[in-house]
Specification:
This protein is mainly alpha-helical and 176 residues long. Helices cover 97% and strands 0% of the residues. The longest helix is centred in the C-terminal third of the chain and has 93 residues. The radius of gyration is 39 Å and the shape is rod-shaped.
């Protein structure tokens, strides 16, 4: 095999290796993008579950509070005859109310944080979608470049073959 044939063979092998590397890169990008998307969806579901649990806890807290207030009303009716008992019950109610308000503030903060996390997840999803679209555009661009290079390689092969044949004819003519 001539040196030019060896060179062309090496060029074709290098192009093949290049395509394999590019294909592996694109496959890795797809896997990473899909894994990130699945993680974001799982995080969103967890946030929604947490919000639902907080709402259930708030409803239970309201029910417990209603039951507690009914119990306190009964106790207040009994203790009204005793002034000292009324002062003690009033102090207890103020403490319980402060605790309930603290718990309510905590629940409201948790709900606000969950809503903020949902917005962050939506933004992350939009970013991942944009990155995926950019990667797909890059793949299409690389396909076009490959098509151009393949066409140029075919043209160069044809030119080489023609020049080789002409030179072989000239050498044969010169040898006669």
């Amino acid at each position: 095999m001539s040196t030019a044939g060896k060179v062309l063979t090496v060029l074709v092998m290098l192009a093949t290796v290049g395509w394999i590397v590019l294909g592996a890169g694109v496959a890795q990008l797809n896997r990473n993008g899909n894994a990130a998307l699945a993680k974001l969806q799982a995080d969103l579901k967890n946030a929604e579950d947490g919000l639902h649990d907080a709402e259930v806890a708030l409803v239970k807290l309201i029910d417990d509070t209603a039951r507690f207030q009914e119990n306190m009303d009964t106790q207040l009716a009994v203790l009204r005859s005793k002034m000292i008992g009324v002062d003690a019950a009033g102090s207890r109610l103020k403490g319980i109310l402060a605790d309930m308000q603290g718990q309510l503030a905590t629940v409201e903060t948790t709900v606000a944080n969950a809503q903020h996390d949902v917005e962050i997840r939506k933004q992350e999803k939009e970013t991942e979608t944009k990155l995926l679209a950019d990667a797909r555009a890059e793949v299409l661009r690389l396909r076009d470049v490959d098509a151009e290079m393949t066409e140029r390689l075919g043209t160069l092969r044809d030119q080489f073959k023609k020049t080789y044949d002409e030179n072989a004819d000239r050498v044969a003519s010169a040898a006669r």
